[in-house]
Amino acid sequence: MVPLRYRVSWKRRETADTYTFALDPVDGAPMAYRPGQFNMLYAFGVGEVPISISGDPAAGPLIHTVRSVGAVSRALCGLREGDVVGVRGPFGSDWQVEAAAGNDLVVVAGGIGLAPLRPAIYRIMAERSRFGQVAVLIGARSPKDLIFQREIGSWRSHLDMEVEVTVDHAGPDWHGHVGVVTELIPPVAFRPEEATAFICGPEVMIRFAARALLDRGIPRDRVRVSMERNMKCAIGHCGHCQFGPDFVCMAGPVFPYQRVERLMSIREV
Amino acid sequence: MSLETIDQLLRTHPFFKDLDPGYLELVAGCGKNMVFETGDYLCREGDPADLFFIVRRGRVAIEVHLPARGSLVIDTAGEADVVGASWLFPPYRWQFDARALEPVGVVALDGACLRDKCEEDTRLGYQLMKRFAEILVERLESARLRLIDLYGGGRAG
Asked: What is the pLDDT of residues B44-96, one digit of tens each?
């Protein structure tokens, strides 16, 4: 798996430490991918990290949203228009949006976890009539930590989709909900027995959000979660991302919740 | 709005689910409808806490004022939420500000009146205390989840 060269065609600041950028292939054809999959992005001379694809699989350039949390992601956030990066991928499992057709959908995102869910939200919106009630529930630390703010505003204007945002704390000019994202789950309208849920965020958030969804009555096998582990090779060779019997880079990052629920409660895993 | 309507509203409210009809009537007798315009305060930190509110419509910000930083919204309450537990415990003073983020309609219940009734009838007191305990546990869980920085983590994207 040799990285292909991609050139940054535009870059946008989302928050103080998070950027979204579009990549155009230098050598080959545009990449085909499914919502929820990730690429290995290589900042030349620094290193390679797994980053979920945050764009629309059906349109436009390859888009990634990166939060600066280490040396490589910091280098990626420092890229400028015209710079070139290496890209390997796409890798991993996807949200299986198609399989949710006919169901109500509850999408729960926390922090940067909205990025891997955005491709799924695009597909749901593009084929809205194929789904029942759709709710997108988003949590962030504060209003300034919220990514895709302008886009969330446009999603909210869709009358056939419930979009709720909550933050942990806010200034007096914030007129939205304040509290944790799990608090948005009990009041949201959906038919639990006919619903599918997608959850992405830090693992602790996934645990509490899944618990709240199960409390509402969503069947375990209809909850899908995107796991983050220390993915290095992305092709199941290095073993860094082993999670019980699975390698997250191969069997994941998107898993049925029932497959990882028990493992998430084992502290040594 | 009539007393009967407040009584009916409380009968269907989850907070009062399964409360004896006689107690519901008694609680409703301590209630009145109030309306707050955007920016109005339902209560201010330090003031005597003789009321609690059942939100009927609109959104309320629970705020704390930080010196040199201004107000910080630490919670919000919306339709069907209960605002205020300070009336239950000495010194019966509001711990936070509550401000209407939009036009808000509430049923305001007279906590001072209910305190006396709870002292006289400990079964009523227990029923109300159980319900408030559930709300306080939910708020404690929410505060704890926020303490652990739920959205932090090391994920780069």
From this structure: 999 999 999 999 999 999 999 999 889 999 999 999 999 999 999 999 999 99
CB contact under 8 A, B72 and A169: yes
Q: ∠ CA A131-A123-A234 to the nearest 5 degrees?
A: 125
**Which residues on B lie below 8 Å from A204 (Cβ)?**
148, 150, 153
Contact B155 A65 (CB under 8 A): no
Q: Check CB contact under 8 Å for B155 and A54.
A: no
pLDDT digits (tens, 9 = 90+) for B120-146: 999 999 999 999 999 999 999 999 999
A149 — phi, psi (to 5°)?
Answer: -60, -45
Q: Where are the beta strands (DSSP E) in A35-91?
A: 38-43, 47-52, 62-67, 84-91
> Measuring CA to CA, which residue among A59, A38, A212 is closest to residue A139?
A212
Phi-psi region of A60 (alpha: psi -120 to 50; beta: other; left: phi over 0): left
- The helix/strand/coil state of A230 is coil
To test the contact with chain B by mutation, choose from A41, A180, A199, A211 the residue with the greatest count of B C-beta atoms within 10 A, namely A180
Query: Over the stretch A160-197, which tens digit does the pLDDT of each residue have?
Result: 999 999 999 999 999 999 999 999 999 999 999 999 99
Pairing of strands A162-167, A177-178: parallel
**Chain A residue with minimum CA distance to B101:** A175
For B22, the 3-state DSSP assignment is helix
Q: What residues contact residue A256 under an 8 Å CB cut-off, 6+ apart? A: A220, A221, A223, A224
**What is the C-alpha to C-alpha distance for residues A224 and A58, in angstroms, rounded to an integer?**
22
ipTM of the complex in this document: 0.84
Which amino acid, one-letter code, is at A78? G
Tell me what pLDDT residue A44 has. Answer: 96
* Number of neighbours of residue B67 by Cβ within 10 angstroms: 5
The reply to whether residue B151 touches residue A111, judged by beta carbons under 8 angstroms, is: yes
Which chain B residue has its CA at the smallest distance from A38's CA?
Answer: B157
Question: CA A219, CA A236: separation in Å to the nearest integer?
Answer: 30
Q: Please check the confidence at residue A95 and state whether its pLDDT lies above 90.
A: yes
Which residues of chain A have a CB within 8 Å of the CB of B99?
172
A115–B157 C-beta distance less than 8 A: yes
